[in-house]
């Protein structure tokens, strides 16, 4: 369920950013980008819970992050 929620939130980020790129109205563009940023926070919230509840995912995530240094 957490992964599906993350996918939904990431999809929302893409949709709002695409909409922002399509409008010529600067006020609407700013609102859409603000909403996209809120959706990114939602992604982070679900990802945090996933890392807290899925030890295998946490280990893979940590190993990958350390290997990238
Ligand atoms: Fe959301």
TrEMBL record:
PANTHER family: PEPTIDASE U56 FAMILY (PTHR37165), TYPE 1 ENCAPSULIN SHELL PROTEIN (PTHR37165:SF1). InterPro entries: Encapsulin_nc (IPR051429), Ferritin-like_SF (IPR009078), Rr_diiron-bd_dom (IPR003251). It comes from the Archaea. Its main location: other. Coiled coil: none annotated. Residues 2-53 form the Rubrerythrin diiron-binding domain. This is Demethoxyubiquinone hydroxylase family protein. It is found in: Encapsulin nanocompartment. Keywords: Encapsulin nanocompartment. It comes from Methanosarcina baikalica. The keyword Acyltransferase does not apply.
